[in-house]
Write a structure and sequence with these properties.
The structure holds two protein chains of two kinds. By secondary structure, chain A is of the alpha+beta class. Chain A is built from ten helices and seven strands. Helices cover 44% and strands 14% of the residues of chain A. Classes of the chains: A alpha+beta, B alpha/beta.
Chain lengths: 272, 203
Amino acid sequence: MALKGNLRNFSLVQLLHLIHLARKDGRLVIEGPRETAELYFQDGKLVYAGFLSKPVDLLDVLHQQKKLDRVKYQALKKRMSKMDDKALGLLLVNSGYFKPTDILAALKRHYADIVRHLFSWVNGQFEFQKNIPPPRERIPVRLSLENLIIEGTRQLREWESLQAEIPDLDMALKFVDQPRTDVKQLKLNVEEWRFLSYVNPRNSLRKIARVLNLSELEVRRIAYALIQAGLVELVRPEDYRPKRVIRHAFANRSKEESIGLVQKLIARIRRS
Amino acid sequence: MQAVKIVVTGPFGAGKTQFIKTVSEIDVVATERRISAADERALKESTTVAMDFGRITIDDDLVLYLFGTPGQKRFDFMWEILSEGMLGFIVLVDSTRPETFREARRILETFRAYAPTPYVVAANKQDLPDAWDVEDLRIALRLPDNVKLVPCVATDKESVKKVLLELLYSILEWIESGEAHRLPKEIERTGASSSDDGKQSAE
């Protein structure tokens, strides 16, 4: 039977731990918020990681990691666009551009980055399909999972902590009237700026996450950072409707009667 | 005889039972049980499992009851029952235990979500040397400036009276402003400020 479930109930860290311990061979497919990831394992080690919509491209990886300058990258991209990674890797090695170890190291780093990114997915269907080998055209690496599991565990703790800080994504944010921090000194990244443009008591965090294609972890992380920076505060969204509003003591009393009652209480407590 | 009530809530070990004991004219009807978890027992021997119950007679026709909620998370279901028909609520926080601040925020948010009534936050154990400053607490608890945060020593009657009075003043303002007698739909919105300042809507 295929190993299937949702990351909400069984995290990626737990999955990697299981694959590592059981030394599994196969393909793990995870449906994330924006894209679907696929990871291949052999003997409990990661051999390939990528996204279905954007498979790993060796030339892109080498260029991103600054192993290829822009001119060479563009020239090679033009000439070898139809070549698969395995053939391309052989060509690059044979032509003296790279040593095999350089290519393997670059791919390992890239796959590890993808797994790190996947740790931010806390919700999404997954399925592990046993004994499916990696695509032939890919260059297989053998990346041990131990370190990634440790990193993932740390991130999991961060997730748990952020979830405790911001338990409810139906809350919204509003700018504080008087920021406790010097706004001019704040250095925000692009994602945080984009996020800020949606800060409004009308927009729940869930809505913002949906519009910006952010995972639950990412939206909590950004919201928490902005709250900690003293820039925004959590509020109930304007259209929030609690499941039930309890009846208060004045519901069946007139305004005058209510005022009289509270004044009596104040007088009595002052006297006591 | 009319009876009204104020709810005293807060994290485990915040001092709710003591707060009620200090001001109640009757022996507090406490539903305490011996704590089983070792780490919690290190803090105190017993805890409230259903509610604490104190009384202040106002006059021949009116009595004020103080209800203390259980502090442990697993008794959350009692909160809503105890809050029905209350005048307002007090969130008691142990100023010396920052590890409980997050829980205090959770309790506050839960109550605010379904209780449209005024509330105050009381920073208890302010007489202890490692108590956090009230203003530091305000930041840690993420309390807006318009929420009253009152320093408190739950064993001291004057201090407890001050907290009760601050809550009653807030309730009085709330009634006088007309908010208490608005339709529930409007009351629900009081937690969020309206903003039409041109910021984008996510939808």
